[in-house]
Amino acid sequence: MNTQFKKGVLELIVLLSVNKKDMYGYELVSEVSKVVDVNEGTIYPLLKRLTNEKYFETYLEESKEGPPRKYYHLTILGRRYQKELLREWSTFCKQVNEFIKESEEYDEAAVY
Q: Which run of H or of E encompasses 14?
């Protein structure tokens, strides 16, 4: 996937994932990787920024497999921001898809 496309949608995917359920960092990396190829070095700075902007709250929970895990929870402000991004993404996709469709129709008309 084009790196710029991925950068543009990564924040939205992270917000939507945590909206489904609270997640810890590595769990979130695994979830996001189902949609776009990412690594921990990409996700953790994003989580830190979104937490600093008050879109996430964090809490620690004991783990059976090691040290306590830091979970991310979407705040009310985060839910609003996620909905705003989702609206913007939907509008963006609709406009780009319409442009692509018009371009394809133009190409077909130009050939004949």
A: helix 3-20
Cα 102 to Cα 74: distance, rounded to the nearest angstrom: 39
- The residue range of the domain holding 12 is 3-111
Read off the CATH number of the domain in which 105 is found: 1.10.10.10
Q: Report the alpha-carbon angle 33-13-29, nearest 5.
A: 35
Q: Could you report the per-residue pLDDT of 22-52, keeping only the tens digit for each? A: 999 999 999 999 999 998 899 999 999 999 9
Report the distance separating Cα 34 and Cα 37, nearest Å. 7
96-105 own/partner pairs: CB under 8 Å, 24+ apart: none
Q: Which secondary-structure segment (H or E) carries 22?
A: none
Nearest to 68 by CA among 81, 59, 76, 77: 59
Q: Which residue has the tokens 């960092």?
A: 25
Tally the domains of the chain. Answer: 1
- Which pTM does this prediction carry? 0.85
Q: DSSP state, 66?
A: E
